[in-house]
Amino acid sequence: MHDTQGHTAADMPPERGGVPGRASPHSSPPSGPQRSAFRNYLKLARLHQWGKGVFVLVGPVYGAVDGSAINWGAVGLAFLGFGLGSSACYVVNDIRDREADKNHPRKCRRPVASGAISVGAAWVFAAVLLLGTAGAVGGLLAVAPGAAAMWTGLAILAYIANVTAYTYLFKHHIIADVVSLAIGFVLRVLGGCAAAGIEPSTWLLNCTLFVSMFLAFAKRLGERRTREGGDVSRSRAVQSVYTDDLLRMSVVVTGVAALVTYAGYVQARSGLYTVGFNLLWLTMLPATYGLLRCIVLVERGDYDDPTELAIGDRAFQVAGVAFVAVTIAIAFIADRPL
Length: 338
Hints:
By secondary structure, the protein is mainly α. It has 14 helices and 2 strands; from the N terminus they run αααααααααααββααα. The chain has 2 domains: 48-200, UbiA prenyltransferase (Tetracycline Repressor, domain 2, Orthogonal Bundle); 202-221 and 237-338.
């Protein structure tokens, strides 16, 4: 058989150091499979979800602006502990949900569901991540007072217990699934505050609760929008109980609750920031825009996960940066604690 240039396969010169028709043993680096496996383990750990660890930093950041002395080394170890603990929980979740994930257009590419990583290897990886979590908590004992290290460690332990309970129980029960997810975010806030040695305000805990419930309900609504016409309950069983109208209502209720709670915080600080008007009110603008932008994109089916939205949508990112920048600018311009 001849190629398009009129030469037979036998006429083609062999690869350097090889034989005709076969690739050279040096044509691909031997480390390729190892690199591919390494990427699969990174994917299994879901490092992009470590972005949720920003909730660990919220309390310490506000405390720093408020003039409190923050032990940032302890806060960093708390962030690491929650990150490693959450990765271990994600691995366990992927092991348990591997059959359901095979029916999801995106989750089917997860390493365990796709078969790239065996179940046994995934269990070993989860154990390694938990050991890393224990190491981070142990490190806290060296850089933080005993009480701070103890409460931070308890918050991380409670977080892992809550996520495990979610994986095996709560995720199958309507509303309880979302409350459990919200508790995970609240525990991050409590852990960060404990590591920093500061007391979380009621405003902070309420905002965290409602924002995280909003994100969880939005994720469930987004899953239904991105799989319009498909059986979304095959990848998340509790979706057979939720309805579109219930999820829309829940997204709106928790979103409004989050904004109203934050508005109450802004109002409570009016005595410190009123210069003609309450300057802190300006932060309501990017907060409101970002939340409504999230609702629009999820309802439209552009994203099925608000975390992916935060990573991928430029307008939402601008709103987040504007919120942080305006908040810090007002605090320093007015020379007042937040």
